[in-house]
Design brief:
The protein is an alpha/beta fold and about 300 residues long. It is built from ten helices and 13 strands. The relative contact order is 0.13. It is found in: Cell membrane.
Length: about 300
């Protein structure tokens, strides 16, 4: 991939606040056009501090950032019309209706989509006449998203886009974000929902204490983590009777096996259970989830810090 296929590039980015605290400590990553990139991290890891640099709201203390080929801080007029930013708190006047709010926003946006189209995209068309203060928390998030989409952005920054949404609203937002990606929009997403990142992200980076500690696709980030097999042994069958090759942790009769060879370990376990005629109640085998990978990274990094 050539460098101009990258819509966002960050090289050795650093950001220090007044007082000298360094919130972003030399991170580098690239986001290709038409990709959903998730920036994840523990609380205070530096995600917002990083995203603000990408959005051009602040200049880095050191390093280089480019969005659509421009410095987003120094060349803000060139970048701003081409990006959409969904803020965590929209902060618009709550006495206006949904449609009035969107029209006000559209008035400040060049080449804006028609307001009904933007509201339709996020499923708010039927709430157009409702005052913002009467919206539910989830509906407000969807209004935030509609406003970010008004300018048909090439790059969309989504900060916790599904906070407060119910399961259906979350799925709808995911479908919309995928559809936007499929039509060529590049999406930079921050989220605390690891399931969301696992489901949406083409690439992700996990930050901890100002640094990127892991990056890759959701599959490659989880691939290095052990899968696990869980089951309940019948009373009277000691965990010590399990085949020697399986490294099992036991909490009474509750067994957990961690393995990098899920298929082989499962075959070994099932053969042993059949030959010994031992039922494995509640048998559950699964590859590592992003959540497990994340927790492991956070704990390891904290312990090692
Ligand atoms: N204006 C500021 N002045 C000083 N320190 C700040 C400022 N803003 C953020 N920080 C500190 O920088 C660190 C990173 O904060 P940041 O908000 O970027 O993290 P985050 O990954 O977005 O966290 P969260 O997931 O909790 O939202 C934190 O330790 C925070 O306290």
């Amino acid at each position: 991939m050539t460098t101009d296929q990258y819509v966002i590039t960050a090289n050795e980015l650093r950001r220090s606040y007044a007082g000298g605290f360094e919130a972003v400590s030399g991170i580098s990553f690239s986001v290709a056009r038409g990709e959903i990139f998730a920036l994840l991290g523990t609380n205070g890891a530096g995600k917002t501090s990083t995203v603000e640099l990408l959005e051009g709201l602040a200049a880095p203390t050191a390093g280089r950032v480019r969005v659509l080929g421009h410095d987003p801080y120094r060349e803000r007029p060139a970048v701003r019309p081409r990006i959409g930013v969904m803020l965590q708190e929209g902060g618009f006047p709550s006495d206006l209706t949904v449609a009035e709010t969107a029209r006000m926003w559209a008035g400040c946006t060049s080449g804006a989509r028609p307001v009904p189209e933007a509201l339709g995209l996020v499923g708010l068309a039927e709430r157009a006449g409702v005052r913002v203060k009467q919206l539910s928390g989830g509906e407000r998030r969807r209004l935030d998203l509609a406003l970010a989409l008004l300018g048909r952005p090439e790059v969309l920054f989504l900060d916790e886009p599904t906070t407060g949404l119910d399961a259906e609203g979350r799925r709808d937002t995911w479908d919309l974000v995928r559809a936007l990606r499929d039509s060529g929009t590049t999406v930079l997403l921050t989220t605390h929902y690891l399931e969301e990142a696992e489901s949406l992200a083409d690439q992700l980076a996990i930050m901890h204490r100002g640094q990127i500690v892991t990056t890759g696709t959701p599959a490659t980030v989880t691939a290095s983590r052990p899968a696990r097999i869980r089951f309940l042994l019948p009373d009277g069958v000691p965990a010590g009777r399990l085949p020697l090759g399986l490294h099992a942790g036991a909490d009474g009769q509750r067994i957990e096996i961690r393995t990098h060879q899920l298929q082989e370990s499962l075959e070994e376990l099932l053969r042993w259970a059949r030959e010994s005629q031992i039922p494995l109640e509640g048998l559950d085998a699964r590859s590592a989830s992003l959540e497990e990978a994340f927790l492991e990274i956070a704990q390891t990094e904290t312990a090692g810090a």
